[in-house]
Amino acid sequence: MLRSCTAGLRSLWALRGRREGAARLSADLQPARRLFSTEKAVHKDWALPNPSWSKDLKLLFDQFMKKCEDGSWERLPSCKHTCTYKSEDFKTYFLDPQLVEGEGLSQAQLFTRGFEDGLGFEYVIFNNNDEKRTVCLFQGGPYLQGIPGFLHGGAIATMIDVAFGSCAAISGGAVMTANLNINFKRPVPLCSVVVIHSQLDKLEGRKLFVSCNVRSVDEKTLYSEATGLFIKLDPKKSST
Amino acid sequence: MLRRGFQMAVILGHHGTLPGATHLLPRFNPASAFGSSTESLVSRFCQEMTKTKNYALPNASWGPDMLSLYHEFLEKTKTDGWVRVPSFRSNRDHIRGFKLPLELSANSDKSDWRLFTRCIEREGQGFEYVIFFQPSEKKSVCLFQPGPCLEGVPGFAHGGSLAALIDETFSKTACLSGEGLLTLNFNIRFKNLIPLGSLAVLNVNVEKIEDQKMYLSCVTQSRDQQTVYAKASGTFLQMQLEEESSQQ
Hints:
Chain A is α+β, with helices and mostly antiparallel strands. Helix content of chain A is 23%, strand content 26%. The two termini of chain A are 17 Å apart.
């Protein structure tokens, strides 16, 4: 089962723990100091307030930024483009590295960052490295609709996957999603803000078991609960 | 009976989270609930609409694999009873003439809001897909070609984009097979990455309908079935839509 997973690997949430100057992918997980000290071109950080952020989202953001002051929490910057020209390290994980160098990829962009302000995924992730948990503040915009007036289940699944990935990466470094299981309790009204609390439940070898809940800002409404299994990528495995 | 009531309470939010919902119990008659035949559901929700753009049609971005398999299924719509499901920019267009159950209708949507899997307008950049439904077997096939805006790992589709499309295919299949409306549970096991621009085929089946819930399964694989990309299962809650009365 693990072998078939590694055959077509997917580490969605970048590679934490890489050396300075090493390849950076969708930089949802790069600590701030690494990003700004090593990048020649400064890529815009999308995990920061913009005019489309609602009052709720900004308020929560400020609360968590305060928690970052003593170093117990850290905000993860988030890059829009996957830097394919720098993904040397990724090639060692893939069966067919040529796929990564394909033409036309320069127009590719990270799925969750490919929208104009406010239309798609507005989110920011805060890590608590000691407690191995993350909080993702998420505001789903009008292009993420499912049933009229509500957020699409697939959009929630995408954000849960993002939140899980960050959480798993704290302990596992380069990780990939193996399984996701989501229970939807209540539909999420479109354009509202939700808070996704994720934690690492168990670490077994290369398997990371994570769980999360998705709640309203006042925590009174539970929208969904989910569990996931992530696999730590094995740097020793060759690409062929 | 109790379970059904509980589920409705859960959906309705007994914390009062759905504003404007004054009735806690839906007005459905268990005897006739979900009695609409698949044929009537298909004719209700699969109407081609002249004024609204149908995205489930080939465009210049479709690769040869997608095109040829599309044409194979198009033939089957003529000979074997398959239905090509139209795809509009918003689900509101799919339910014209009907409205959501009261509990869900409190949140109004705006006309420029978009269905997630139709969020990217530019041809070939996002979700290129078409769903074919076989009413007699309650199964669907979705042809999916992910564009560069769906990228996760460089060169490959983001797992969330596949999860979204599987949920969407589940949703349309559940709706046509028996008024399945809301996702209750979604489970996905990723096996392999889908290269951007390539064709992935989603095979969806309704496994069981029981206690107001529909259970669906999906296998996503390459056209030649040599590569399995993911396996998924979903549970949907059946909820009837109400006809819009002429006095609103």
